[in-house]
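step: validate -> pass
step: tokenize input -> pass
step: predict -> running
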Amino acid sequence: MSTFGDLDNSQFEEFAKHVNTQISGGQLKNEVKNSVKNVGETYKRNAEANTPIKTGDLRRSWELKGPFFSGTDISVELRNSKNYASFVENGYRQTPGRYVPAIGKKLKASWVPGQHFLQKATKQTSNQIPQLITPVMDDILRRL
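step: predict -> pass
step: emit ->
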């Protein structure tokens, strides 16, 4: 016996057993997985909406993969398969005075600024995450 008295931890053990049962069943993991996938799909929609359209190829080339589990991390991967996407996003250098037959003109500027469509989509999605994740997490915690 301790000098402070006896400790009855039966309720805690019962709670721990209940949490273990919920987690080992896989249902919670699937709910979290679906929630993260929903965030990824929202991110993809935002990226598509912000992507500039010239021919539409860049906008149609967004791909979402995942979610992936790595230890305690859950992630999704959003990528664009067009090799020029990063140049449209971040900008690029060009040689002024060079004639470009496709546009029928000589280049004037040495730098073409990026359009930052992915940065805009990231900011929009970050603002939407609480509305997407919080209800699911509240439901999971309520059941635990």
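step: describe -> The longest strand covers residues 62-70.
step: cleanup -> pass
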